[in-house]
Protein 1
Amino acid sequence: MNKLKSVRIVLTASLLSLTICSTTVSAATYKVVKNDTLFNISKLFKTSVTSIKKTNNLKSDNINPGQKLKISAKIYTVKAGDTLSKIAKANKITLGALRKANSKWTDSLKAGQKLIIPGVKPGTTVSQKVEAASTMRAASTMKAASDGVIPYTKEEKDLLARLITAEATGQPYNAMVAIGGVVVNRVQSKEWPDTINDVIYDVPGGYYQFTPVKNGYINKPASSIAIKAAGEALRGADPSKGAMFYFDDSSTNKWLWSKTKTAQYGKMVFVK
C-alpha cells in the first residue's frame, strides 16, 4: 500500500468517526405530502409497507397529506458548515432522498436543525451501513462498468424496461432507447438520485417524475423490444442527446416546452 492510499484511508476513517459522533440515534416522524403512498415511503426508508402499518396501527394503505408517521430512521443534528450534499454523502444516501425525507427543497440550513436520514436504521453506524451495502452489492447481479455506463442490477434493468414499455409502446424504437437514455442521464447527474430505482421512483416535492409510477402502469411486464432498448441505453446509447426530460407532443406544459429541445421521435419530445 503506498503512502497516498494510507492517507486516504486515515482521512476516510476520520470522516466516518466525525459523522457517527454527530448523528443522534432516534426514531423519526415523517410528514406525508401530496401524492405519497405507503409503497413509496417504504422504498425511501428502506423498510416494508407492513412494518409502517404495524408501527402506526394503520388498518389500510390509505394515507393523507399532513399525516404523521413514525419511521425507523436516524436523526441528524446540523452543524455549522454543513450542507445537504455533505450530509447526504457522509451518510451514503442520495441528495434526493434526503430532500424528500425532510421536504427540504431549498439549500438553507441552520446549526442545531434536525434532519431525518432515510434508510439508516437506529443503532446502525455509518461504517456498518457501508459494509452492509458492499455485501448486498456483491451478492446482487450488479453489472461491471465494462457492460454498462452505470451500475445496475437485473431488477433495475427490468424496471427500466417496464418504464419504456409504459411510456413508448407504439412509438419508434429510437424513442424507447432515448427514454432509457434520459434515466441514465439522470443517474449520472449530480442533480438527481444515483440509481435507476431511485430516479424512477423519485417524487420530489410530492410530484411524480414518471406518470407510469403514479398510475401503476410501471408494474406491467416489459415487452421484449423494451428490454432490448433498455439494454442499449445501459450500454451508453443515447438518442435523446443528453436530455433530462421527455414528454408527449400533445402536452400543454409551458415549462417543458420552454426547455432546450434535443430530439423528437414520433410523439416523444426530449429536452434538457
Protein 2
Amino acid sequence: MFNPDSRQITVIKCVVFLASLLPLARLVGYGFTDRLGANPIEFITRSTGDWTLYFLCLTLAVTPLRRISHWNWLIKLRRMLGLFAFFYAVLHFMTFFWFDHFFELDEMFKDVVKRPFILVGFIALLLLIPLAATSTNGMIRRLGGKRWQWLHRLIYLVGPLGILHFWWMKAGKNDFAEPTLFGAIMALLLLSRVYWNVVQPRMQKRRSKPAPV
C-alpha cells in the first residue's frame, strides 16, 4: 500500500495544483499566439466548461478511489480539486457574462431565463458558491462536522446539473457523444456512493443477524 508521509503529500499536492493550472495556461498561451480559432469566445467557453466537468468528476472520484485502493491520503486532494471545479466554473460564467453580455446584468438575466440550459448551469454555479465559501478548516469548525457534511452533499446535485447543462447545450447541435460519456461517468460515481452508503451497510446488517433457530 502506498502510504506517503507528510512531505511527500505536500509534493503531490503541489504537483496536482500546478497540473490543475495547465488548462488556464493553455488558454492564455493560445490567446497570446492567436490560436483560439475562428470563434475565440466559443473556444474559451467550451474549454472552461469541459474542465469544470473534469474537476467535478475528479472530486467525486476521490472517495471511490480511496475505498478501492485504501489510499486514505487521497482525501487530502479532494478540497483542492473541488475548488478548481469552482474556479473553472467561474471562468466559464465570466466568459458568458463578460464577452457575451459585457457585464450588463439585465441582458444576462434575460438570457438566463430565455435559455433553459443557461439557467441550469447558473443554478449549478450558485450551488457551488457555498461549497467553495465553506471549504476552509475554520468554516468546518464553525458549522460543525455534520452540518458541513450535509451542506457539501450539494455536490451530488451540482454534478447532475452540470451534465444536464452540457447535454441541453449539445442538444441544439445534435451532438450527444461527450454528454453521454460525462453522464455515464457521473452516474457511476454517484451510484458507487449509493452502494457503499446504503446497499453495503444493509447487506452487512443482514449478515450480522443471527440465524433463526
